[in-house]
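Board work, copied verbatim: histidine kinase
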Amino acid sequence: MRQRGKLRYVPLRYKLLLSYLFLVLVPVIGIGSYSYVSSVRSISEHTRNNMEFAVKQIASGIDGRLANIVRGSEEIFSDQTLSRYLSGYYLSFEKYAITTQYILPRLESAANLPDPNVQLSLYLDNGHISEFYYHAPEANSGSGRQYSIYHTERIRGEDWYRSLDLNYATAVWRQVGEDAAAGQISYLRPLINYDTLQPIGLIRMTVQLKDIFHTPDMSRLGEGSRLFVVGGQGDRLWYSSAVEGQSDWTVWTEESGEGSAHDLQIEEAVTGMPAKVVARIPYASFQEGSRQVRTATILICLASLLVLTVISVILSNYVLRRFHKIIGSLHAFKEGDFAKRMPIQGHDEFSQIGEAFNEMASTIEKLIEEVYVGRLEKKEAELNVLHSQMNPHFLYNTFSSISRMAKLGEIEKLHQVIRHLAKFYRLTLNKGETIISIEKELQILQSYVEIQTIKHADRIIVHYDIDPGLLGYDTVKFILQPFVENALEHAWYDDQIRMEIRLYAEGDTVWMEVRDNGLGMKEEVMHAILDDSGQGIGYGIRNVDQRIKLQFGRGYGVSLSSELGEGTTVRLSMPKYVQKAAGPNSALE
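↓ predict structure ↓
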């Protein structure tokens, strides 16, 4: 039944969303259908307007490229310093310096200024200025940006040059020389001496027709459209077609200049030169506009549906937001965040739920705090009880040793044992503290070891490996002695026993280690020692482990490793801890 209920479960958000979608779907479909019918009726007019605008843009782009070329020529024409240099007579070394340091850099700058690649040529009447031109075969190919200096004598006999009638303020676009064969056109204007206002040469900027008239995207004019650029005298300058494979003037010659019954013809004058742009768009391509409108209508409907879906989701989220706040607060409580409260907004049922939830949360948090404080007090009491049990345990063992020495008449040893025992208890019972410095804990251990060394006639060898930098930290008192005592009681099986006491740190953890070369123990014995349910075995070790955990947490304590015949290693872990706010270490690190 539970699985069946899950299958039938539909979130409230989805129910609201479906109802919103149903309410908006009908008007979206109706509005979309009406928009499609209205758009198809006016498609012809809109298409013509769009085509005219596209042709104007093409003509405007051509004008912009022409203006760039004119601006490049203006850099040469208006440079009076360059004009004086090109009109003067200089010695060889002066001529070389002027040419390399000013004339050629100015020509290079002017040639690089226009967007299209241009060939800048200066024809000078002054024969004292050296010619500069390219000898490479590609020099006249029209590719790349080039600049050259020639003497006018080279073109003085050309028909096109003799027919030029240029003055100070005139310039012309014309195909001269080999321009027509190379698919080029040149911008011609005189080079003026500003002192005499007389021409001293000719500026010629040659550019490929394709770089000026090429339209990269003919699809804007529609499928099957054709574009012509015709000069002022009817000369054919450029042709482009959206029909693959048509790239000549065949269509222009087959049809009249006014177009045909199958085409819409649009003309736009080019202001930068005596030419016009003629576009012919097949009427059949207008149907493509209708299809585009249909596609656009469908896309708009889908987009509207998507937008309305988003709006529906937003509305659903707005309605369900307070539910989510309640659920989020409950999840926070589940994860242990008992300080979580629900913000109260408005004056409705949700605000009443929020007030009740916050009151319940405050009550639960207070109860948890009371239980937590009680457990802390209980742990502190257990710590004191465990510590009070530790001292009698050691005292009982020591008095047993003193009794044996007294029976044997070893008065001097008895005197030394009692003296070290007094020192031991002076350190242990000092101010009744249960937390002492690691340095004092090691002094307690050393006093105990001295007592045992006297008792066993120097058969105990203890080596200390201590990190002095850790002596200032604090620890639970009386935690090392029980392990040394256990080693002496249970691990001894030879004439001597060796032990090593280590103190070192790994990161923020302090490690104390007691290692012996005694008998060792089996693995099940080690588990029984650390098992809280163990009876009569490992009481002292468990005592130390519990005290460390009570003070520092479950992540610290005692660990054992042993191997029969090799010895036992006991490791005690605790954080770097300083109990009192005194000295450089004043907090738990």
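Confidence is low (pLDDT under 50) at residues 253-258, 581-589.
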